[in-house]
Amino acid sequence: MHISDLRQIHSRALQPLFQEEAEHWRKELYWDYRASQQLIRKFIDSRSLAGYVAFEDKHPAGYGFYVFEEQKGLIGGLFASPKFDQLDISKKLLLRMLEDLRDTPFIERIEAQLMPFGTAFDELLAQQGFRLRRRQFMLADLPVRAALRPQMRDGLRLQPWSDKFMEPCARLIQQAYTDHVDSEINDQYRTEIGATKFLRNIVLLPGCGQFCPEASFIVRAAITEPPVGMVLTSTVAPGIGHTTQVCVLPGYQKNGLGRRLMESSLAALQNHGYTALTLTVTATNANAVRLYENLGFRTVKSFAAGVWEPKHSA
Q1: What one-character-per-residue DSSP string does 33-46 give?
Q2: Cβ distance 277 to 269 under 8 Å?
Q3: pLDDT tens by residue, 142-152
Q4: Torsion of CA 295, 296, 302, 307, to 10 degrees
Q5: What is the pLDDT of residues 98-131, one digit of tens each?
């Protein structure tokens, strides 16, 4: 096996891998990954995407890439063909990327969520000093019993998403995830600035499918009040939605508001002819897992969210 720098490769050379990868995402995760691959191709061909490609007898066998976000490194993608030793190739690529990231002087944190691989790399990541949190990829087949009811109890009212809610919803995320396990996994939740970047990636950029405003809602107590809850949804394949964010302000939690938000999203998707909704949840968030199971979701894949920081890996 020969490993080359991704910046020395044209995306055409990876076409067989892209086809296999797209099929894997479609079968395993119900996701049309081709739109994401178009962006990946663009950055590969501009020589601006850091990563590696593995070749077996001049045939592309696997590739992986990583990106920088200020003082943080992210494993952005990893795939190897099942025609070869898939896990061994993926392991070698992953280790090369982690070595690069740890050798980068300004990097203070590395995040890795290798959802397509499930739990295959948990042991390797732990050996590399990552703290791991188990997450569940869940799916609900539609239709389910759900209703879109704008009026809620205690005077709360459901409203369709509007981009004017970007700033107050960033504050909502920061407040909702204070001391929450998910803020350990995604440090963008810890600050308003980070939450704003997260929302922009979800709503304005194709960071997680195509944003679906028809199934995205906020809840507030009065027309002039800031949101106290929200649910955001994207389309990740024809007829398949994905919940990219659902959160409720502390003080409004544990009163059924999260359930009503999810029911509203489910009902809206059903009204638009969708056949399924997916989401991810941290396994230790037992209340959320139980809510989703009660709504008809089932776990179809488990995977780890890993975080490496020098202060925890020494």
Answers
A1: THHHHHHHHHHHHT
A2: yes
A3: 988 876 666 67
A4: -20
A5: 999 999 999 999 999 999 999 999 999 999 999 9
Mean pLDDT score of the chain, rounded to an integer? 94
pLDDT computed for residue 223 by the predictor: 80
Report helix angle 166-176 to 192-203, nearest 10: 120
* Residue 153's pLDDT band (cuts 50, 70, 90): low
Q: How confident is the model at residue 88 (pLDDT cuts 50, 70, 90)?
A: very high
Helix (H, G, I), strand (E, B) or coil at 24: helix
Is residue 224 within 8 A of residue 157, CB to CB? The reply is no
118-144 burial code (b ≥16 CB/10 A, e <16): eeebbebbeebbbbbbebbbbbbebee
| Domain definitions of the chain by residue range | 2-107, 139-304
Residue 69 main-chain phi, psi, to 5 deg = -135, 90
CATH number 3.30.479.10 given to 2-107: no
Mean per-residue pLDDT for 234-247? Answer: 98
Reference 113, options 87, 86, 138, 94; nearest CA is 94
Half-sphere exposure of 186 (CA within 13 A, CB side): 17
Give residue for tokens 């679906």: 212
> What superfamily does domain 139-304 belong to in CATH?
Gcn5-related N-acetyltransferase (GNAT) (3.40.630.30)
Q: Are strands 109-113 and 72-80 parallel, antiparallel or unpaired?
A: parallel
Predicted pLDDT at 146: 72
